[in-house]
Amino acid sequence: MANDDPFGFDIRVSSDKKKRQKGRRGMSGAFETSTRRCDYPGCNQIGQYRAPKSPDDLDEFYWFCKDHVREYNLKWNFFDGATEEEMSEQIDKDRVWDRPTKPFGKPGEEQRAWARLGVEDAHQILG
């Protein structure tokens, strides 16, 4: 492909992928370029897999090797120490991606629109 672009801007997808490869996770979730050591006591393998330290702070991570991250994930419980009420509240938030829901339009707005067309009941148009 000849570079005929006067601005030197390459919009090919493969070009963008090559730029963003550094530090990316592989199919297994591993950060393949990681040079950290496994945080498990006594383990000297490379820690390519991250795991959150606590449910309260999901932005701080332990770094484990494959075997130890599996062990950690089997024991992980996000709701450990939470009450039943806190659990149901979190489940309700997750149902809408932790965003408050809002009704479409303002109350009565649709009825006014139908009234302008001379229709009292919107279901009338269906016969």
Through-space gap between termini: 60 Å
Multimerization status: single chain
N to C succession of SSEs: HEEHHH
- Uncertain ranges: none
- Strand neighbour order, sheet with most strands: 1-2
Overall residue-averaged pLDDT value: 80
Class inferred from helices and paired strands:
mainly alpha
Overall outline = flat
- How would you sum up the major sheet? 2 strands, antiparallel
How much is the radius of gyration in Å?
27 Å
Question: What is this structure's SSE topology?
Answer:
Blueprint: H1 13-19, E1 49-52, E2 61-64, H2 66-75, H3 84-95, H4 109-116
Antiparallel strand pairs: 1-2
What does this structure look like?
The chain has 127 residues and is mainly alpha-helical. It has a domain at 25-100. The protein has helices spanning 13-19, 66-75, 84-95, 109-116, and strands spanning 49-52, 61-64. A two-stranded antiparallel ribbon has the order 1-2. It starts with 12 loop residues before the first helix and ends in an 11-residue tail after the last helix.
